[in-house]
Design a protein that fits this description.
- 75% of the residues lie in helices and 10% in strands.
- By secondary structure, it is mostly helical.
- The longest helix has 52 residues.
- 0% of the residues are buried.
């Protein structure tokens, strides 16, 4: 995360109130700080997984579009060239 607490995630922007959050973290106990760190790691891993899934979805949509447009041509070719 940047100094302002902003991070772009799959076209959206997650904005945390940086200064206020920093003050609360400074006042927090060590167990609370560890809990916040784990929560932050979980959020980041979730965002990364969402980005990967979005890329997979876009690839699948592209493959489907190709098959949909090229499929009839390939079927016709197959019928004329395969005994």
């Amino acid at each position: 995360m940047g100094a302002t607490g902003e991070r772009a995630v799959t076209g959206m922007r997650l904005v945390l109130q940086g200064p206020e959050l920093a003050k609360e973290v400074e006042k927090a106990s060590e167990p609370a700080k560890r809990g916040m760190a784990k929560a932050g790691e979980s959020i980041e891993k979730t965002a990364e997984a969402a980005e990967r899934l979005d890329k997979i979805r876009k690839s699948a949509e592209g493959a489907y579009g190709f098959i949909r447009s090229a499929g009839p041509v390939l079927i016709t070719w197959g019928h004329t060239h395969v005994d």
